[in-house]
Sequence to fold (232 residues):
Amino acid sequence: MTDMTSIPPVVTIDGPSGSGKGTIAKLLADKLGYALLDSGALYRLTALAALNADVALDGDNLDEARVAAIAGNLDIRFAIAGGEVSAVLEGKDVSRDIRMERVSMAASKVAAIPAVREALLQRQRDFRALPGLVADGRDMGTTVFPDAPVKVFLTASAEERARRRFDQLQGRGVSVSLRDLLEDIRARDDRDMNRAASPLAPAEDAVVLDSTDIDIDGVLHKVLDLVQQRIG
Ligand code: C5P
Fold:
C-alpha cells in the first residue's frame, strides 16, 4: 500500500494575471515552510530565451517547433538570497527582465503552444517535495497537480487588476497608461482562457476566491483555513 504521508501535499493557486496569486503563494509558502513554484516564471523564461534568439512570435510567423525546443532545453535555475527568489537564465540574473511588459505578452503567446506546455510539465512536477509545495499558475490544479488536496482559483475584476499593476509600476517610477495596462490584461486573459491547451479555468474541485474587495491578509486567512481543513 502507498504510504500517503510520504506524498508531499500541494496547494495550487491559479488565476488570471494581477489577481494577487503570486503574492499569496509566496506568503503561504513562507508561512507553511513549503517550497514555491512560480510556473509563470518558466513561461516568461521561455519567452525571454525565444526573444533573445530572435524567434518569430507573431501570428502566422510563430515558430512553434523552435520555441518548444527552447523550452525543452532551458538552462535555468532559481536562486534564493535574503528571502527573495531570482531567476537565472544561462548564468545571468534576469529577474527584472522577465517582468517587462513585452516579455509578459510574449509569455502568453508561447504558453499557448501545446508542445511548450508539454516540455515544461515534468520540470514543474519536479518541484514537488516534502514537506509540501505551493504552486502558482494557470493550470496547476487542472493539469500539473490534479491530485492536489487544496486548490484555489483567485480572481479579481480586470479593472482592479490593471489598477494594482498601475500602482505597482508607478511606485517603481515607471510611467504607464492605465488604459494600456487594462488592454494588455484583457488581451492576455483572452489568450489564456481561450487557448486549446490547458486554458485558464478553475478545477472542478477548486475554491474560487474573488479578491476585488478583499485585501491580501483577508485572502491569506481564507487560504490558510482551507489548508488547515484539508491538510492539517
Ligand atoms: O503568472 P504570470 O503572469 O507570470 O505568467 C506569465 C504567462 O505565462 C501568463 O500570461 C500565461 O499565459 C502563462 N502561464 C500559463 N500557465 C501557467 C503559468 C503561466 O499559461 N501555469
Summary: The chain has a mean pLDDT of 93.
